[in-house]
Amino acid sequence: MDILLFVFILGLLILLHELGHFLAAKALGIEIEEFGIGFPPRIATLFEWKGTRFTLNAIPLGGFVRPKGEGDPEHPDALAQAPAWKRFFVVLAGPAMNFLVAWLAYLILFVGAGLPEPQGVLIWYVEPNSPAAEAGLQVGDVVIEAEGQPTRTPEDLQRVVQAHLGEPLTLTVLRNGQRLQVTAVPRPDPPPNQGPLGIRIVVYGWRDAPLSERVRTAWETFVGHTRALIQLPWQWVKHIMGVQTERPAGELIGFRGMYSSFSLAFQIDRVSPTPVPVYSLSLLASLSLSLAVLNLLPFPALDGSRLLLALAEMIFKRRLPRRVEVAIMFAGFVLLLSLMVIINLREWL
Known about the structure:
Strand 4 (142-146) and strand 5 (149-150) form a beta hairpin. This protein has helices at 2-27, 84-113, 131-135, 154-162, 211-240, 255-271, 278-296, 303-316, 322-348; strands at residues 32-49, 52-67, 115-126, 142-146, 149-150, 169-175, 178-184, 199-207. The chain has 2 domains: 85-114 and 212-349, no CATH class; 116-207, Pdz3 Domain (Roll), CATH 2.30.42. The radius of gyration is 25 Å and the shape is elongated. The strands form 2 sheets. Strands 3, 4, 5, 6, 7 and 8 form a 6-stranded antiparallel β-sheet that branches. It has a two-stranded antiparallel ribbon with strand order 1-2. By secondary structure, the chain is of the alpha+beta class.
């Protein structure tokens, strides 16, 4: 089930990216022959609207937009023949749609859940036959105290547990709005990857706030995350050149890494008392922002390179020969595809 949900989310983000291109092209009078949901082979034509055929295709990973005259760039109605400023805005609309989706995801997250404020530790998994299981701890419990000490973060709980290995440990938990006390004995020598209590935890806590503060926090989070992603490529360049010794926080991940992150978020959201799926929404916003920023990089075959070419044409009133543009984009596509293969193979080897 998780894999299907992940494929749906990834495909939806790519489809919305293409929808941005489509809406901008329509608004600027550029004809679109086909808007494909999924990738070929084609299953069926759903309907036609204002000269555009909407089709359903077999591979459910996004979609595509086919402008009129795509096979013949010399066609008078082709996107390639449109003025540079029109091409610029059509290309820009794809990443802009991903930015919009990310902002809306953060808005739904903070308006629905409130503002983050650590208040306890959420148990999202209990190992069978562990001290936690024997004590009656359950998935969805929120640990708020250990031996009378507040446990607002996982570090708070881990510190108290380590001080009581092999001894009875009293935990105060919230379960379905009720405050309960349970006693467990943390193991001094637990099995690998289980921990003394045998639970998997994450920080939990949200507080009420005025709507204006929630909206402002959503915007600030969106802007801060966008700024961090924009700075990330430059930080990696400085790290590789030795100018920056500290390894940047982010890195490129493949489909396996993305799926693992979303699968974990789905599991936590299923047991979290929060009324909205905050962890999934946060990852959705992150992935949408990553798609937007990645596409804006001035690398051949990405939207950023097409924006750069259109901008240069607007400034210098000259355009690269069509065959040169095609050669640059093809070379970039091959390099990009090779990079994707390397990243995904690295996660499996």
